[in-house]
Design a protein that fits this description.
The structure holds two protein chains of two kinds. Chain A has one domain. Chain A has twelve helices and two strands. Chain A has helices at about 25-40, 45-50, 50-70, 80-100, 100-115, 115-120, 125-155, 170-190, 200-215, 225-230, 235-245, 250-280; strands spanning about 10, 15-20. In chain A, helix 3 (about 50-70) packs antiparallel against helix 4 (about 80-100). Chain A is globular, with a radius of gyration of 21 Å. Residues about 1-15 of chain A have low confidence and may be disordered. Chain B is mostly helical. Chain B is built from 13 helices and no strands. The longest helix of chain B has 28 residues, at about 140-165. The two termini of chain B are about 25 Å apart. In chain B, about 45% of the residues are buried. The mean pLDDT of chain B is about 90. The interface of A and B includes residues 59 and 221 of A.
Chain lengths: ~290, ~260
C-alpha cells in the first residue's frame, strides 16, 4: 500500500516493483478479481445449492401478495401484483446474488483472528482487495440468480408488464453500483471489529433495515411523510433504485438514481478509508 | 434408569451453564449480541404494520395473532438454540469426523453433542418472544399455554434439525441442506398459514413441521381446543423419538475422521 507510490515504477501482484514500466495501480485488483472469478467458476454448482432458499423466499412472497391483492388489476402503492412480486424478486436476487454477508464475515474474521496483520502488509489496499474479491464472487452468482429469477417469475407470476429490453444496460449499471455501495457499507460495519470484538450485531440491524424497508416493500408503500427520509438512506441506492428501474423504467428516474448512487459511493468510499485508517492504528500484533 | 436420566439432565444443565459462562467472559459482546438480536427481531414488526395498513387481516390472522406467531417462533427457535445449538450444525460435526471426542466420554453421546454449544444471540430471541406475547396480554392460562408451546416448538425444531443432521451419516453434502431446510422452516413459520393453500400447506404440516411447531399452537392460543393441544404434544414427542432413533441408527455407520481433538 503506497510502498511503490512513485509513478516511475510499477508493481506486480506479488508486490515486486519493476522500473521503467507504466504505473497501473488497478491492474493488481483486476488480477485478484480474475483469480476469484475463475475460482468461483469452478464451484458454480455450489452456488446453485443456494437456489432452494431463494425459491422459498420468493414462494412466500408470491403467496403473501397473492393474498393481499384480492381483485385482478388492483393497485397497491401504484404497483400491480405482478410488479410488486417482480420487485421483491429483483431485490432478493441482488441480495442472494451478491453474497455481501460472506465478504463482511471475512473482514470480521481477518480482524478478529489477526490475519489482517499479514494482509495489510501486501502491496494493495486491504479494502480494495476485499471489494475485488467480492466483485469476482458476484460476477458468477448474480447472473445465475438473475436467470433463476426470470424463470421463476415467468412461470409463477407471468412476464413483467412493459419491460424495456433496450434499457437493460442502464439497469445493469444501477444494479452493479447498488451492489458495490452495499458491500462498502457492510465493509464499514465489519471494520468496527477493530474496536469491538464482534460487529455482527450491527450487521444484523443494517441487514434488517435493508430487508424490511428496501427488499420487501418499495418506498412508495410507506407513509408519505416517511418517503423523503427513506430516499436519503442507503436503501434507495442499494435495492429500491435498481429494482424500481427493472419493474418500471424511466430515463429520468435512471439518471436520478445513478446520481444518488455516485454520491453514496463516494461518501461510502471516504468513510470506509477513514475507518480503516483509524482502525489499523488500534491493531496490536502479538506475534506467534 | 432414573439415575441415568438424572445424570443426563445434570450433564445437560452443566454443559449449558458453562457454555453461557464462557460466552459471558466478554460482557460487552455478550450484551450487544442479546440486545441487538431483540432490536433485530423488533424491526420486522415494520413489515406487519405496513401489511395491516393495507388489509384488516393477513392470511386470516389479526395483528394480535401475528404477534403470537412471531413471539412463539422467536421463543421456540431461541430456546432450541440456547439449549441444543449443536443440533443445528450436527452435519458439519459428522462430515468432518469431529464426533470422536464425544464418543469417548462416559456420557450420553447425543446429550453431550447437542448441548456442547450455545448461541448467545438466541437469548435475545427468547426474550423478544416472551416480551411480545406478554405485550398481547394473553392472561395467565394463555401465558402457560405459550410456555408449553415454546417447549414443544423447541422440541420440534431441534428434532427436525437432528433428523436432517443425522442424514449426514448416509449422505454427503447434507450440511447445506440442513441449514437451508431449517432457515426455510423459520421463514415459513413467521407468516400465517392462511396464505398457503393446497400442496404447499400439506408439505408445511407434514414435511417441514412448521404447522405443528407454530401454526397449530397459535390457533390453540387464539381459541382453546384440547384435541389440537394433544395433537401438538403427540407430534412433538413422536418427532423427538424418531430423531433420536435415526441419530443412533446413523451413529453405527460413523467412521472416525482420525482427527486429534480435545474437549475441556
Amino acid at each position: 500500500m503506497g510502498k511503490c507510490g512513485d509513478k516511475s515504477v510499477s508493481m506486480n501482484i506479488k508486490g515486486g516493483c519493476r522500473a521503467g514500466v507504466r504505473f497501473r495501480p488497478w491492474r493488481k485488483y483486476a488480477v485478484i478479481y480474475r483469480s476469484v472469478l475463475m475460482e468461483n467458476l469452478q464451484y458454480a454448482a455450489n452456488v446453485a445449492m443456494g437456489f432452494f432458499t431463494y425459491f422459498v423466499f420468493i414462494f412466500i412472497f408470491i403467496k403473501l401478495w397473492g393474498y393481499m391483492y384480492r381483485m385482478p388489476g388492483e393497485l397497491i402503492a401504484g404497483y400491480t401484483k405482478e410488479q410488486m412480486i417482480w420487485y421483491v424478486m429483483m431485490t432478493e436476487m441482488m441480495l442472494f446474488g451478491s453474497n455481501a454477508a460472506s465478504v463482511a464475515g471475512e473482514v470480521a474474521r481477518d480482524i478478529r483472528g489477526g490475519n489482517i496483520a499479514y494482509l495489510m502488509n501486501k502491496p494493495y489496499h486491504y479494502t480494495l482487495y476485499i471489494l475485488s474479491k467480492y466483485s469476482g464472487e458476484w460476477s458468477i452468482r448474480l447472473p445465475m440468480y438473475a436467470l433463476l429469477a426470470v424463470v421463476i417469475g415467468t412461470v409463477m407470476v407471468g412476464p413483467l408488464p412493459c419491460f424495456r429490453l433496450t434499457a437493460v444496460p442502464a439497469m445493469a449499471v444501477c444494479v452493479v453500483m447498488g451492489l458495490t455501495i452495499h458491500a462498502v457499507f457492510k465493509l464499514c460495519i465489519s471494520l468496527f471489529s477493530f474496536w469491538i470484538e464482534d460487529a455482527r450485531p450491527f450487521q444484523w440491524l443494517y441487514d434488517k433495515l435493508i430487508l424490511v424497508v428496501g427488499v420487501m416493500f418499495p418506498v412508495e408503500i410507506f407513509p408519505r411523510t416517511l418517503q423523503p427520509l427513506l430516499k436519503m438512506t442507503p436503501i434507495y441506492t442499494v435495492c429500491y433504485g435498481p429494482a424500481k428501474l427493472i419493474v418500471d423504467f424511466s430515463p429520468e428516474k435512471c439518471l436520478e438514481i445513478l446520481a444518488a448512487q455516485i454520491l453514496y459511493l463516494t461518501a461510502g468510499g471516504v468513510l470506509m478509508t477513514l475507518i480503516y485508517r483509524r482502525g489499523v492504528k488500534k491493531l496490536y500484533v502479538n506475534g506467534g | 434408569m432414573l439415575t441415568a436420566v438424572k445424570n443426563g439432565l445434570r450433564v445437560c444443565v452443566l454443559s449449558i451453564k458453562y457454555n453461557i459462562m464462557r460466552e459471558m467472559v466478554n460482557k460487552v459482546t455478550f450484551l450487544t449480541n442479546v440486545c441487538f438480536m431483540v432490536l433485530n427481531n423488533a424491526s420486522i414488526l415494520v413489515q406487519w404494520f405496513i401489511l395491516f395498513r393495507l388489509r384488516e387481516d393477513v392470511g386470516g390472522y389479526t395483528f394480535r395473532e401475528i404477534l403470537f406467531l412471531w413471539g412463539l417462533t422467536a421463543a421456540s427457535f431461541g430456546l432450541s438454540h440456547i439449549l441444543f445449538a449443536r443440533a443445528f450444525s450436527l452435519s458439519e460435526l459428522i462430515i468432518r469426523g469431529k464426533l470422536d471426542s464425544y464418543l469417548v466420554q462416559p456420557k450420553n453421546v447425543l446429550v453431550s453433542v447437542i448441548t456442547s454449544s450455545t448461541d448467545i444471540s438466541a437469548i435475545g430471541d427468547l426474550l423478544y418472544g416472551v416480551a411480545l406475547v406478554c405485550a398481547c396480554r394473553p392472561g395467565v392460562g394463555g401465558f402457560f399455554l405459550f410456555l408449553l408451546f415454546t417447549v414443544t416448538g423447541m422440541a420440534v425444531f431441534t428434532a427436525f434439525a437432528l433428523l436432517l443432521g443425522s442424514l449426514s451419516f448416509w449422505f454427503v453434502r447434507m450440511d447445506m441442506l440442513q441449514g437451508q431446510m431449517i432457515m426455510s422452516a423459520v421463514s415459513f413459520a413467521t407468516y400465517p398459514d392462511g396464505i398457503f393453500t393446497g400442496i404447499s400447506r400439506f408439505l408445511l404440516y407434514f414435511i417441514i413441521p412448521v404447522g405443528m411447531a407454530v401454526w397449530h399452537p397459535v390457533h390453540v392460543m387464539a381459541s382453546f381446543d384440547a384435541g389440537m393441544l394433544l395433537t401438538v404434544l403427540g407430534y412433538a414427542c413422536a418427532l423427538s423419538v424418531a430423531a433420536v432413533a435415526v441419530f443412533y441408527r446413523g451413529l453405527r455407520r460413523y467412521a472416525s475422521g482420525n482427527l486429534m481433538e480435545a474437549r475441556m
